[in-house]
């Protein structure tokens, strides 16, 4: 029996909108998603889907069909520390917090996907795991979910996920082959000198001058040591040191981030950051401490999984509504932790509509989505899961 997931999803559109607006009114930050988690569990319990708690406020639902294959579908659930400046009935009721990245839509789509797939559970030739991930905007709940065994018992064969995109017109999706998002390594370098009077610099070791040389030298890693065809970024975002115009301080702290598109480049840039800092600081008689954080890895789309996403999208919305994206994003995405463990695919769901003035960027105080995208996301996720298990 051929399933019409597009119309099945459209039939619950009002329910999807109601869920999304409720979540939008009540945003919660990473690992604080108590109400959101309760609403997810309440929904799953109501329709008879078993679940377990994971990663603190995360939830893993399980729809058990008849077969050995298992697919995971992921949605992130946290909001951002941002004031909602939209003037609408569903704007945030929580001061200083807002769903400004569409995670309320992602959660809604996964709940809708759960409802539709559960209604055809007897036809599923395997298991569907529903990953509701907390803290995507901060430390990445996916990492903890993996550590706690969310990909096991039963073992997940592949994972799919989506993200709304305000640059893609509603009714369309965007698909990127290969690398989708950059890896991130925030860093802090504390450069220590010897304090002195500004009029007698020879009596001290100036950490401000040393810091200047370090910052300039770091820029040469990208411009002169990595292939110009491969994107990478080293940004120093803050410099702190000194208290007065005529005092050479004892230390300066610089902090920034590295973004790379290849795992091998990630390791190379980290090593060169250490080597350059060592060389410059020691040559100028200073001392230093350096800390490089291991943040989100690169997100790679598996060729086979993304081909199946394309097939599912062609069936549900038509090939003319699938846009192939040329460039990866220098932004990070915690779905990468899943993609490092299992063959995965991550794509973008259009939510832009200029006629409705839905044009504002994510992570901005006016961000919104065209809710027509919700059932589209449900139908593609359902099709991809159903066909893979079949």
Automatic annotation (TrEMBL):
| Matching Pfam families | M20_dimer, Peptidase_M20
> How and how many cofactors are bound, per the record note?
The Mn(2+) ion enhances activity.
State if Lipid biosynthesis is listed as a keyword: no
Q: Which domain of life is it from?
A: Bacteria
The residues that the entry says bind Mn(2+) are 101, 103, 137, 163, 363
Record-linked SUPFAM superfamilies? Bacterial exopeptidase dimerisation domain (SSF55031), Zn-dependent exopeptidases (SSF53187)
Protein name, entry field: Peptidase M20 dimerisation domain-containing protein
**Organism this protein belongs to:** Clostridium kluyveri (strain NBRC 12016)
The root-end lineage is: Bacteria, Bacillati, Bacillota, Clostridia, Eubacteriales
